[in-house]
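DATA SHEET
Item: assembly model
Revision: 1
Owner: S.N.
Input lines:
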Amino acid sequence: MSKLKGWKELTPGGIITEAGNAREYKTGDWRTERPQVNKEKCINCLFCWAYCPDASVIVDADKGVMVGFDYDHCKGCGICASTCPAKAIDMIPER
Amino acid sequence: MAKVMGLTGKVMGLNGNAAVAYAMKQINPDVIAAYPITPQTDCVERFAEYVSEGLVNTQFVTVESEHSAMSACIGAAAAGGRVMTATAANGLALMWEMLYIASSMRLPIVMMVTNRALSGNINIHCDHSDTMGARDAGWIQLFSENAQEAYDNIIQAVKIAEDLEVRLPVMVTQDGFIISHAVEQVKVLDDDLVQEFVGAYKPAYPLLDVTHPVTYGPLDLFDYYFEHKRSQIEAIDNCFPVIRRVGEEFGKISGRKYDLLETYKLEDAEYVVVALGSTCGTAKEAVNLLREKGKKVGLLKIRCFRPFPKEEIIKALVPRRGVAVLDRSVSFGGFGGPVFTEIRSALCDAPARPFIIDFFYGLGGRDIYVEDIEKALLQIEDVVQKGQVDQYIGYLGLRE
């Protein structure tokens, strides 16, 4: 997210005048724990990708392999870690 | 058809509701969404007649509640329409959450509120508990003394709300039954003159402008909500010059100039009564009668309660010896009524501030008499002469 604006720089009533700017809103900063994948254990079953409620598991579609996480949007819910049959995902506390 | 002060127009026999409905017809807004509630019903009924007779182009939305009425007004105003409505008492209370949304989105909706006591117990008569409860909702509030002022205020409200420096909703009040149902001679302007005065509406950020898409009312959390409220504080604080300018411009076309406050025999007054709404007429008579007895008394009438004209009130009240505030609503458990609290706060740092006492009166439509106001003025005189306040809060017209 770009630098937060002061109150004098805002539109009247907080109206949003640009289309599609929700893309700029990084919601991943709510996270208290971040998922970390151990690719040596990962079997690329893509269970994490299927279960992630926030589409934050990054997959290389051509190769069919799990690549990592989109930390800008991952909320750290841990569903990926709990569904991983290979126990390849650890939840690391955010500082 | 009588000439009014050399200007065009005519005199009509109208009650307050009819005067406002007539002004709404002349303004001819794009949308009115309203729900009937005593004592406002008469106003929207009359407007519905104008719609059925084809005298206006307004889209009249008959909604199922006041919450829906204000919601429809918000939608229509955001879409880019000139929007008006009217309500009273419990109807206003049902609009509560939407009032805040209308002002937060900076939508110039104009609403007439026929003042009525909030339940319970159920009561349909006048007091100010409805609009005073809405005083923190971010709306401009203009109080009217009679049907003429209700008519004049509604027309000015459109111009104030829509000013690009303002863009806030405006509430115009009139006292239920006392004004709304009492027929007076009302000087109305010609239709063309009203149209010329309010001008063509120029919406800001209309939703229907599909080439410039906008979003109204998005999620606003700890990162921006506070900044948005700060800009809203600035917006309403900056309204004073516009309200005054519109009042002067209205004076030029009607012969009736308006300001934030009105003073009556205040220049040399030592003891002052402060009031809002129809009671000001009664207070003027009380001032006249006490003046005949040699008492130096006067009236300060607050027309614009939100934003609160602190500087003008300080200027008007600081040179006085005593001030009796009349409150037609209660802030239960508070130190006096809302008008008293605000006035005391404004005068707190004044170098030589007057004694200030409060009187509750007129709740649920209880009549207020000239003698009641004389009593209030004599009581503040007594306080000043004793040099101390024994009782800050009194009651006028209450049985013990």
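QC remark: Residues 34 and 92 of chain A are 5 Å apart (CA to CA).
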